[in-house]
């Protein structure tokens, strides 16, 4: 017989009731927790989550401020803004970016550069910002996109302001240009100040006055639907336009100087001696900055880089040249300042000079020499031998001490970034480079050759100091800054850079007379531009050697390839007695300062002093025997 246990209903009932109680406690606990959480959300955290909810449907959209304008002294626009249609995408609202780009490519023309730049923005910028896919849409493209826009999520058609340079390459080397913010700049800029802004000043005034021109970003609080489409504007904070900049530059004079230089490589600086205001700042050849705004294509940029004339180089600011005989304008004054110096004492110039114990001949530009010359003759006829001997008498340290206050060997402080220093050499300068200073280097420094290097801006600055009775002013391009809304105007005040230490101011008067005779006496090297001038000009020609000529060999300009010919220089100011302008001109491989550089300076001065825009009447008369 089977032993079948009797079912214990009582035990099972107790077990079931116990489990049910546990489940009941858990359920009650969960309900209680849910109620507490609901109470917390509804009562205690109500404001926080209401704000989050609002933020989910209210989108802040940055409004780019209009960039400040750049104008010349007469109000001629040099840099402006103009409206363009742009195709923009908000990445966080796009599910399939590749499909979207493919569909948009059927409506507007998207080239590789557009797609490459967009992919770069995707990597660098927040996904909630509007990213530009294509700018400068044609009216037809904008119309097609406007019709189809409702079918795309995250696609916007916007009207934006873009930078434009209406005069093309005119003054590009001081204006500079704006371009898209790159990855390195993105890390450096103030994120709040550049919210929604794609462009930043890259070179020239656009870069050095970036904060002034930028303005302040505005915002719109826009209510959106579930698809991110704008429904209405809830609040608008208007942007603040950047301030306008008025320059001391005269655009017509700038154009005249650039046209006069033509296709030649060179630089022209014209400035007011009394204030340091720059009237013309020319570097040729130029280039059009407008393609750089949107991003120049690689082929065009490569062509600029490989151009043998190097148009991208700012010769006026960064070109470093041997000053040649223009340095005699300052060393002549240095001689007058020497104790016991007699400017009337004749010095023999046989056409060459040698150091004691050396057979090496330092030649004069005039093969047969100048005979017996005093300081006046040496400056007027640009006698090299006289200044060889003067350099040895002063020694290199003496020359450096005198030339340094004129601004040689250091930045002028002009309101542009990346100015070059030039070189004012000395034995200490060479020792720092683990090189030995040789006596012959002192000799050739006396005629502006060797290690000494200057920029065209430094030459104009130094000549201005002579014209301004020994007071060197800081060169400045910006004349005034004007608030675009209130029209409040802040003038740029002239700044004294240095006061040239002179023992006797009569020495300055003597040297200015010497420089005046360079232009207005028939033996002067610049008589070609001075003989018919209705006003007095003080100036000095210069010819800077590019290719070394060995001992026993002669230099022939016609037989020398163009790129190895001498540079032509001329420094001047006018009118003598009441100087209004100082001018420096450098023509690379131009040959002679008297024939290549001086006529350009004359045209600049005629424009400013006589209102002329053409060459002076009459045929220019060449120097009788001086062509230095």
Observed structural traits:
628 residues; alpha+beta; Penicillin-binding protein 2a (Domain 2); Beta-lactamase; 7-stranded mixed sheet; 5-stranded antiparallel sheet
Brief overview, please?
With 628 residues, the protein is an alpha+beta fold. The chain contains 22 helices and 23 strands. The strands form seven sheets. Strands 2, 3, 4, 5, 10, 18 and 19 form a seven-stranded mixed sheet that branches.
Plain-language structure description:
It is a single chain. The chain has 628 residues and is of the alpha+beta class. It has two domains: 59-225 and 233-247, Alpha-Beta Complex (Penicillin-binding protein 2a (Domain 2)), CATH 3.90.1310.10; 251-286 and 315-610, Beta-lactamase. The protein is 36% helix and 19% strand. Strands 2, 3, 4, 5, 10, 18 and 19 form a seven-stranded mixed beta sheet that branches. Strands 12-11-23-22-21 form a five-stranded antiparallel beta sheet. The relative contact order is 0.10. Residues 614-625 have low confidence and may be disordered.
